[in-house]
């Protein structure tokens, strides 16, 4: 069986100008990443702000050209496909549903747009499909008549999900789809995404900084740090036995609703990661509690653990 | 001893919007009190009303609003300005909104001190450096000369905390101080606040929408919904035996790492927060509540569920659940 997403040695650099006189800086947002996502599964991606999660999403969606490496979606190179074929295969759902919905169109027209753009559906067919998907995501026909500003945050995210699914794609890239929502609405949206995946056999790449959410939705989890996957494993294994010191710190920093436990001391220090200045050796070494001399000059290689597990650390 | 901050039946309106509708809560001395609720329920407006910092058009009234024995509703603007930043200080979600990009960190911190306490600029800078060390900023001397945009989000929030502490306040109001930060930085900042509270005897009113934060740092909790405090309780009791249907619903929505059951749906609350217009009566949660009946459209009693535990609902307390564990 072909993997839904197959990424090999993917790299993405940006050149940024920091000031008038200063030299151009090179930001390495994704640094030689290799992985695959089996069809029908959910790969969760976690990591701190700026570690390259959204850049990876845009590379996989074909919205950004890699500096090096390849992305195969359903066995095909996205750059070989035209926009229409690409839209039928893979669709995004982003964090801010307000920014991603045209404020001057009615919801049902926004949801119809991907169908209309294909140029192969009749007016009646479009209406039927839009009606069907709106109902599927829990929006009434009356909601379809409204403008985005007249919906709540959760309703807008439902509309964005309807638009992503109306072409019946195989793969959906969710970039922080619930981060702007309240917990009660987040729970509604997560339950909806889970139902849709089961009923339609979808594959998700699910990006979030909320580890509890990722644990709830993902079958596998990758931990990203300064552009690389530093650990990847099946969800249960990763949460039960995190191997990389960074994964351990991330898990420790989650504040579960357990009164009396206080706030943990995760001891990561202030040395915030900077993708324009990646440290030599292990890129995590300035913040690592257990770093040894070797970590400062030799980068760890990925070591395969268990059938689908991987970790990049000299001591793991 | 009386509470440090005592707010009874606070009302705030913006034209026809009732943003806060009779919120009551008390912050005891030396404790962290959390105001928790979903976006738009009136948490920030409540804090701004206490600080007399409401945006134009905001109308405030309260049956009682006392800070350390002083009636805040009777203070003039000048008297209020003398308290603010001095005996009560506030930090916000986005530090850039309260830091001036044109001035160095050092000069902004020193200004707070000289304005309220007088003294020399040099002495104020010394105190700024001392406090920056205290909030875990390394090389404070260098940071004092930097501008806000030269610092990371976590460092800026530490600077805001240090600045709020300049005049040794009795009350610190923190409105979502870690919402914009990564989980790792969030844990560091919250740990810092907990240590400061213990070491300085500070009282903290912490506003958040995150029940994980509430559980880990609060002594007492007030749960807000649609402008009202619908339940108040000591933290452990609120999580063990929540009584208001909204509190119960909210707790069931939170996925807890390590206790996730992936094939089962999360608990959720159907529907959305209703728009509340003038003249609204009864329970604001009734459009989403599984227990709602026609009596919920009438006046709702505040029920006592323990010494410091009460809630707004027609339903009787579940005494079996409330038994000490
Ligand atoms: N178009 C661009 N030009 C220059 N730098 C960029 C560009 N897009 C992203 N970057 C940089 O690449 C790095 C990774 O960014 P990315 O948006 O992928 O992070 P992220 O993991 O999604 O973070 P967040 O959790 O904040 O969404 C960052 O340092 C970012 O500033
Ligand atoms: N300056 C303002 N003018 C008009 N309405 C406002 C203003 N500030 C807040 N509101 C309204 O008051 C209510 C409570 O807002 P707020 O206290 O900011 O909520 P939160 O609990 O998210 O902090 C919301 O309905 C909001 O739209
Ligand atoms: S390789 Fe060394 S520095 Fe990197 S995570 Fe492992 S122990 Fe820490
Ligand atoms: S008063 Fe009625 S509607 Fe409101 S929470 Fe109680 S039972 Fe539900
Ligand atoms: Mg992102
Ligand atoms: Mg707010």
From TrEMBL, chain A:
<comment type="function">
    <text>Involved in beta-(1--&gt;2)glucan export. Transmembrane domains (TMD) form a pore in the inner membrane and the ATP-binding domain (NBD) is responsible for energy generation.</text>
</comment>
<protein>
    <submittedName>
        <fullName>ABC transporter ATP-binding protein</fullName>
    </submittedName>
</protein>
<dbReference type="GO" id="GO:0055085">
    <property type="term" value="P:transmembrane transport"/>
</dbReference>
<dbReference type="InterPro" id="IPR013563">
    <property type="entry name" value="Oligopep_ABC_C"/>
</dbReference>
<dbReference type="GO" id="GO:0015833">
    <property type="term" value="P:peptide transport"/>
</dbReference>
<comment type="similarity">
    <text>Belongs to the ABC transporter superfamily.</text>
</comment>
<keyword id="KW-0813">Transport</keyword>
<dbReference type="InterPro" id="IPR050319">
    <property type="entry name" value="ABC_transp_ATP-bind"/>
</dbReference>
<dbReference type="InterPro" id="IPR003439">
    <property type="entry name" value="ABC_transporter-like_ATP-bd"/>
</dbReference>
<dbReference type="GO" id="GO:0005886">
    <property type="term" value="C:plasma membrane"/>
</dbReference>
<keyword id="KW-0067">ATP-binding</keyword>
<dbReference type="InterPro" id="IPR003593">
    <property type="entry name" value="AAA+_ATPase"/>
</dbReference>
<dbReference type="InterPro" id="IPR017871">
    <property type="entry name" value="ABC_transporter-like_CS"/>
</dbReference>
<dbReference type="InterPro" id="IPR027417">
    <property type="entry name" value="P-loop_NTPase"/>
</dbReference>
<dbReference type="Pfam" id="PF00005">
    <property type="entry name" value="ABC_tran"/>
</dbReference>
<feature type="domain" description="ABC transporter">
    <location>
        <begin position="5"/>
        <end position="251"/>
    </location>
</feature>
<dbReference type="GO" id="GO:0005524">
    <property type="term" value="F:ATP binding"/>
</dbReference>
<dbReference type="Pfam" id="PF08352">
    <property type="entry name" value="oligo_HPY"/>
</dbReference>
<keyword id="KW-0547">Nucleotide-binding</keyword>
<dbReference type="GO" id="GO:0016887">
    <property type="term" value="F:ATP hydrolysis activity"/>
</dbReference>
UniProtKB/TrEMBL annotation, chain B:
<protein>
    <submittedName>
        <fullName>Peptide ABC transporter substrate-binding protein</fullName>
    </submittedName>
</protein>
<keyword id="KW-0067">ATP-binding</keyword>
<dbReference type="GO" id="GO:0016887">
    <property type="term" value="F:ATP hydrolysis activity"/>
</dbReference>
<dbReference type="InterPro" id="IPR003439">
    <property type="entry name" value="ABC_transporter-like_ATP-bd"/>
</dbReference>
<dbReference type="InterPro" id="IPR013563">
    <property type="entry name" value="Oligopep_ABC_C"/>
</dbReference>
<dbReference type="InterPro" id="IPR027417">
    <property type="entry name" value="P-loop_NTPase"/>
</dbReference>
<dbReference type="GO" id="GO:0005524">
    <property type="term" value="F:ATP binding"/>
</dbReference>
<dbReference type="InterPro" id="IPR050388">
    <property type="entry name" value="ABC_Ni/Peptide_Import"/>
</dbReference>
<dbReference type="GO" id="GO:0055085">
    <property type="term" value="P:transmembrane transport"/>
</dbReference>
<dbReference type="GO" id="GO:0015833">
    <property type="term" value="P:peptide transport"/>
</dbReference>
<dbReference type="Pfam" id="PF08352">
    <property type="entry name" value="oligo_HPY"/>
</dbReference>
<comment type="function">
    <text>Involved in beta-(1--&gt;2)glucan export. Transmembrane domains (TMD) form a pore in the inner membrane and the ATP-binding domain (NBD) is responsible for energy generation.</text>
</comment>
<keyword id="KW-0547">Nucleotide-binding</keyword>
<dbReference type="InterPro" id="IPR003593">
    <property type="entry name" value="AAA+_ATPase"/>
</dbReference>
<comment type="similarity">
    <text>Belongs to the ABC transporter superfamily.</text>
</comment>
<dbReference type="GO" id="GO:0005886">
    <property type="term" value="C:plasma membrane"/>
</dbReference>
<keyword id="KW-0472">Membrane</keyword>
<keyword id="KW-0813">Transport</keyword>
<keyword id="KW-1003">Cell membrane</keyword>
<feature type="domain" description="ABC transporter">
    <location>
        <begin position="5"/>
        <end position="251"/>
    </location>
</feature>
<dbReference type="Pfam" id="PF00005">
    <property type="entry name" value="ABC_tran"/>
</dbReference>
